[in-house]
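User: Run a structure prediction on this.
Assistant: Running it now.
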Amino acid sequence: MTVLRAQALGKKYGSHWALKDCDLDIPAGHVVGLVGPNGAGKTTLMNLAVGQLRPTAGDITVLGNKPGSGPAQLARVGYVAQDTPTYAGLSIADHLRLGARLNPGWDDALARNRLEQLGLGLDRKAGKLSGGQRAQLALTLGIAKRPELLVLDEPVAALDPLARREFLQGLMEAAAEQELSVLLSSHLVSDLERVCDYLIVLVDSRVRVAGEVEELLATHHRLTGPRRDRLPADQQVVSASHTERQSNFIIRTEGPIHDPAWTVTKLSLEDLVLAYMDESTGTRLRPLEVQR
């Protein structure tokens, strides 16, 4: 099953394309990391996926249907926005009652058990919680909705390292227990490396690369060797840097590299992401997608 499919998807504000020519086909059952610089289109893509925006161009389907197309579709998708929204004047118990009223598949026992494990009393007001506690409350509300897809827009951006770790641990546990598909945006590649098994890199409002993390890392390499300006046609250059005598390439290739002049090293996920985000090469990259 495809959890999200986009074809030539675009969103324009005035004369500015916030997202353009976006083609994606994300299989269900993954924790998908969405990464890119500020203004790349991450939040726009997420808002299109949950039905808060309508496309200017192209098409998008989520779980086989048009986003936000009706109550049944809305019930299948959970969303935690960038500021992990909660109502400061309401107690945690009030949030649970509101969740039960708004969501037909609401699992009150799940929500209460999770909050008890976190040590969050139901009588506490949301406005008195720490940033990490508010994020955990927002995640609990999203999980207790029992969605098939949970969309999280920079949920840990304002949290300290310990709170981030606890939040991501809870997310991984929920994804495994409920067989959730998750779409998670973050600027912190270390967080994505910890929880994501599928990656999308957005740069300049376009998809630069998308695919399963394991396969992306297996097909991307760093080559270091004597100065060269060109590589064989089967080696897609992602980024390149040169000194007078030495060249350093990051490439994507399906086959082995036989040239003994090159020192070949593996990439970390951060290396891969930064190579695609490199502004000096971004304008000449073709969108790539790893096929299953």
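The two ends are 12 Å apart (CA to CA).
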